[in-house]
Amino acid sequence: MAKAENNKYSKTIQSAVAEYALRLGDNSLILGQRLGEWTGHSAAVEIDMALSNMALDLIGQAQHFLGLAGEMEGKHRDADALAFTRDAHEFRNFWLVEQANGDFARTIARQFLFSTWQKPMLGELANSTNETLAAVAEKAVKEVSYHQSYARDWMLRLGGGTEESHHRLQRALDDLWGYTGEMFAGNGVDDMLVAEGISVDPAALESGWTIEVDAVLAEAGLTKPAVERMTSGGLKGHHSEHLGHLLAEMQFLQRAYPGLEW
Amino acid sequence: MAETREIDRIADLWALLDGVPDPEIPVISVVDLGIVRDIREQPDGSVTVIITPTYTGCPATLLIEQMIREALESDASLRFTIRTELSPAWTTDWISEKGKQALKEYGIAPPQPGERDVPCPRCGTTDVECISQFGSTPCKALYKCRQCLEPFDHFKCI
Ligand SMILES: [Zn+2]
Fold first, then answer.
1. Residue B81 contacts A where some CB pair is shorter than 8 Å
2. Is the pLDDT of residue A7 over 80?
3. Ligand 1 centroid distance, CA of B116 (Å)
4. Do A57 and B56 make contact, defined as CB atoms within 8 angstroms?
5. Does the CB of B43 have a partner CB in chain A at under 8 Å?
6. For chain B, which terminus, N or C, has the lower number of CB atoms within 10 Å?
7. Who among B55, B84, B156 is closest to A60 (CB)?
8. What pLDDT score was predicted for residue B1?
9. What is the distance in A from the centroid of ligand 1 to the CA of B126?
10. pTM of the entire structure?
C-alpha cells in the first residue's frame, strides 16, 4: 500500500517497525482467535454474533498489521506465513489476550480490559507518521469503539446482575488483573519509535485507561483487584501455557498441509 | 474531443460498477455503498479503480473485489487495476441517498448519526430498542420496533 513510504527507514528503525507491527498484529490475531472459539457456543444468538463479529474485526486488523510486519522484516513472509508458521516464542502478544475464554464473565472481563486499552491506542496511532499504521488505526478505531462499549455494557450488567454473575465477574477480574501491567510497559522498540512519531507511547495510555476502568468498576459495584507484581513477557516471546494450545489448533491445517488454500 | 470521450468512458465505468450489488445486501450497489472510491484514467490509457473495505475484517471484501473485476472484464478492451486503500477510512456518510432509500425499502434502517432516533423501516416510529450492537453482518445492528413489534436491522454508523 505505502511501500515507498515504508522503505525510507534506516535498517534499525525498519526492524523496530516490524517488531511493533508484529505486536499489534499478534494481539489482534490471538484475541480474534479466542473470540472465534465462541462461535456456535454462546448462550444466545446475539452474543454469538457479537463475539464472532469482534473476532472478524480483530483478524482483519491482524492481516494488515502482520502484512506490514512482513514487509518491514524483509524475509518474504506475508501475514499468513507469520500467523501460521511461527512458534509460540516468536509471538509478541500480551499475556492477557492469550488467556483461555473460561466462562462468559471471563471473556467479557478480558475484552473490557483490552478494548479499553486498544481504543485510545488506535486513536493515537491514527496520527502515526507511518502511513500504513495510521490508515489501519484510523479504520480500526471505529470498530473497536463498538467492542469497548459492548464489553463495558456487559461489565455493568454482570457486575450489577445476580450474585452469581457478580461473583464470576469479580473472580475473572482478580485472575486477569495481573496481566494488565504489560500493556503499559514497552521496551527499547517503543523508545525508538515514539521519538520518530511512529508508535504510541504505552506509558501515556495508563492514566486514561485507569480512569475508565475505575469508573466502570465503581458503577458495576466491583472491587479493583490489588496485585503485588504484574506478570509480563509477551514482548520478549515468553508466554503462558495457553498460547501453545491455541496455536496448535489455529496452525494445524497450514502445518499439516503447507500452502493449502480454500 | 478526446477529453470528452474520456469523461464519457469514466462515467460509463461508474454506471457499469453501479450494476455490481453488495453480496450481503443485494439491493444496494458497491457504488452506492461507497466502496468504489474513485475511477482514475492513467496516462497509458488504463484505468485504476480505487476501492475501500467497509469493515477491516469484512469477509465479503475479497468477493466484492472479484465481482468488480468480473464486471470490468466484461469490457475486453479495458485495461485496469484495482487498488485497495484504507485511508480515508470508509464511513457510512459515503452511502448515497439512493443507497439509503434502497436500504430502507429493503427493511434495513439506514445509518443514523449517533445511533439516535433510529426509525423503524416499516412503520417509521422511533420507539425502538437496540437488541444487539452486532447483527448478522459486521455492518449491522439488531433492533426491535416497540410499535409494530417487528425486528429489523440498522446499518451501523461508523
Ligand atoms: Zn415499526
1. no
2. no
3. 16
4. yes
5. no
6. N
7. B55
8. 47
9. 8
10. 0.91
Query: What pLDDT was estimated at residue B61?
Result: 86
Mean pLDDT on A183-199: 95
State what percent of residues in chain A have pLDDT above 90: 92
Q: Residue A6's pLDDT band (boundaries 50, 70, 90)?
A: low
Mutation target to probe the A interface, by most A beta carbons within 10 A, among B93, B133, B134 is B134
- pLDDT single digits (tens) B41-88: 999 999 999 999 988 888 788 899 999 999 999 988 999 999 999 989
Q: Give a yes or no: residue A262 inside a domain.
A: no
pLDDT of B132 reads: 87
Grid cell locating A229: 507484581
End-to-end CA distance of chain B, in Å? 42
pLDDT for B112 beyond 90 = no
A45 pLDDT higher than 50: yes
Question: What is the set of domains in chain B, with CATH numbers?
Answer: 2-94 (3.30.300.130), 107-155 (no CATH)
Distance A47 CA to ligand 1 centre (A): 24
In angstroms, the CA B134 to CA B114 distance is: 16
pLDDT score for A3: 46
Task: Classify residue A93 as left (phi > 0), alpha (psi -120 to 50) or beta.
Answer: beta
C-alpha neighbours within 13 Å on the C-beta side of residue A257: 4
Q: Distance between CA atoms of B82 and B13, rounded to whole angstroms?
A: 13
**Which residue of A55, A135, A143 is in closest CB contact with B86?**
A135
- Min Cα distance A230 → chain B (Å) is 32
Whole-number pLDDT of residue B36: 96
Q: Residue A160 falls within a domain, yes or no?
A: yes
Complex ipTM, two decimals? 0.81
Record: contact A49-B133, CB cut-off 8 A: no
Cα separation, A137 vs A30, whole angstroms:
18
For residue B128, the CA-to-ligand 1 centroid distance in Å is 8
Nine-digit cell at A103? 466462562
Angstrom distance (rounded) from CA B56 to CA B90: 10
**Structural domain containing residue A23:** 2-256
Nearest chain B residue to A146 by CA: give it: B133
- CATH of residue A203's domain is 1.20.1260.10
Distance (Å) from CA B129 to ligand 1 centroid:
11
Quote the number of domains for chain A.
1
